[in-house]
Amino acid sequence: MSEPKTPTPVPAGDTYKGWVFKWTNYIKGYQRRWFVLSNGLLSYYRTQAEMGHTCRGTINLATATITVDDACNFVISNGGAQTYHLKASCEVERQRWITALELAKAKAARMQAESDDSGDDFSSSSPPVAPGQGGGSQNSEVQSALRTLGSKVEDLSTCNDLISKHGSALQRSLSELDSLRLTGEAGDKIRQVTERATLFRITSNAMINACRDFLALAQAHSKRWQKALQAERDQRVRLEETLEQLAKQHNHLERAFRGAAQANATADNKSAAGPGKGEASDEDDDNEFFDAMEEAPEFITVPADPQFHKRSSSNISGFNSEMCLDDQSLNEEPLAMNQESPSQELVPLKKRRTRISDKPNYSLNLWSIMKNCIGKELSKIPMPVNFNEPISMLQRLSEDLEYHELLDKASKCQSSLEQMCYVAAFSVSSYSTTVHRTGKPFNPLLGETYELDRRRESGYRSLCEQVSHHPPAAAHHVISDRGWTLRQEITVASKFRGKYLSIMPLGTIHAIFEKSNNHYTWKKVTTTVHNIIVGKLWIDQSGEIDVVNHTTGDRCHLKFAPYSYFSRDVARKVTGVVMDKDGKAHYVLSGTWDEKMEFSRVMQSSRGGENGTEGKQKTVYQTLKARELWRKNPLPEGAETMYYFTTLALTLNEPEEGMAPTDSRRRPDQRLMEDGRWDEANAEKQRLEEKQRSVRREREREAASQRTSSQSEEGAPHENYQALWFERCEDRITGEQVHIYKGGYWEAKDRGSWEGCPDIF
């Protein structure tokens, strides 16, 4: 790395350039880049030739933080999406850059503060001034500065006169000494002193002349600066006047719309909207404004007057009077508040475990695995437990109930549209546990089951069963005492695409509420595991979900935005719109799938905004203040050493009395892995897989012997296997062939009778 053009750091405003190594990614590591520090901005280019046309990135030092990692490394960050990890060639070079950056940061921050102060002083002046009269105080400050400079130059001129006077006297004295005709060394010394005095007087005159030139230049440029500043002030005044006119036009249109809505209201709707009387002031200080959702390409949200909902919600929302009265409460409190007292809540009767054994730090030799797979069938490749986490896919499916309280709240909603908000939030919450979970769950054996009985603590019971092995499919059924049922059958398809692995869950999830008889369905989005070969594994969720209420026709369209290195939006973003059967929007959902979801009530929608990528106009929604629907629970302490398990996940593999013989908690290889005995777990895993293959071959032979010439359509693909607790039938909602719980499991558990369970472990 070459030295910068300037050997030592210079203040911001001048230019400091040089080669510095910048961190790019885990594959390329640090790459040499050409950095330029100028006017408080740090920019970088791949080469010096790019300076004229392509800047790769710029960071403003006024709001940046500069930290030193070690002898050669340092980090520059603006607290947002821009962070530069840099490395100099040596400690001296790093210190030069740090000094230059700190000087530039200090000057940039000072200039920004001065600019803000001058703007505040200008805007807070008591009487408004015309464009031609503004800035009198700034002009006086400039003139005062020029007068100060002039006085200093006069002081220097006075000093110069004194120097000339005393210098002339000194030269006369030296001439008199020289006239004494001193010879030898004394005469040489006198002549030398005379020459130096002459040089000193000439230098002083030159300095004074330079100061005069500086003052003249400052006076000449001050007029140009004043003109430019005045032009900017004039432009600002014109923009403020234009903005004021636009605001007045907007308020006028809004009042006209409200008047038309009130004129068309029916008598019932007028009584429902009665509490909001009178017009609100256009200058209402209670108005709240929120940023538009730039990350949603289909629509834009803008703030609505909070009082607008009270005055005309019956006309705008289109709800009936019962739903309208219920919705008006949303302006005062969150959706579907739980009206039960805390004393009525169920309390845990069993203390669940809060820790498991720490994950061992075993190294994994990928080549040793690959070389043993040469020539083998893909289905027979033994994958070590190093890639797994100590729970099965059935337990992972049960983990969707981490936020079951969302369905509890949904069951109490009076409005189906409110209920849709909670169901949509529940569909998003199931992904919150995946953000750090890069381990692969154990593939269930055919006939394997898992029960999650939380009836006493949370009011629900869950049962999963592996109903098919090729393709692998798991059926799941949950019944809650709080008025809802959840069922699903999930088949996982995956595609390896070199750098990443795409996992596509196939199947439909159903949620049924007893009180309202509302039946909701939705599917799962695609999960992508990145950096399969090189780098640190990380997971992303992307795709779209349609949550449909088949009873009322309501629909919620959710979009999971894929991660993009170049996007300025927040990572893992989710947006959605809740619409009725007529396609009219009532709520806007926004948030992230790993943190929280919020909803905003739509007051009005219209076509407008910027054109989309296909030339279509976006829909603009006027919404009330956003309220929180769901927030992720914090991970337990020490989760990073326990596979990043949540509080619920830590209890999923905890042994209990009365478990079925096929329950995942009885699986030996999974238990050995949880205990940290991975070598034994690998051996046990191979034994179980080989046992399953033997049972499958035996089942195929029996099916072949019983098969007649007219082979049944479903016999071969499903290996003539019948699930124990679920039966295969056609779903009346989707028309798909699915497995639905047929009953009997919990009764068998109460009796302790498991005669029909196969021996799979």
UniProtKB/TrEMBL annotation:
GO terms for biological process: lipid transport. Signal peptide: none annotated. It is a peripheral membrane protein. Pfam families: Oxysterol_BP, PH. GO terms for molecular function: sterol binding. It is found in: Membrane. Residues 114-146, 262-285, 654-719 are annotated as: Disordered. GO terms for cellular component: cytosol; perinuclear endoplasmic reticulum; plasma membrane. It comes from the Eukaryota. Residues 13-106 form the PH domain. PANTHER family: OXYSTEROL-BINDING PROTEIN 1 (PTHR10972:SF205), OXYSTEROL-BINDING PROTEIN-RELATED (PTHR10972). This is Oxysterol-binding protein. It comes from Dicentrarchus labrax (European seabass). The lineage of its organism: Eukaryota, Metazoa, Chordata, Craniata, Vertebrata. The gene is LOC127379171.
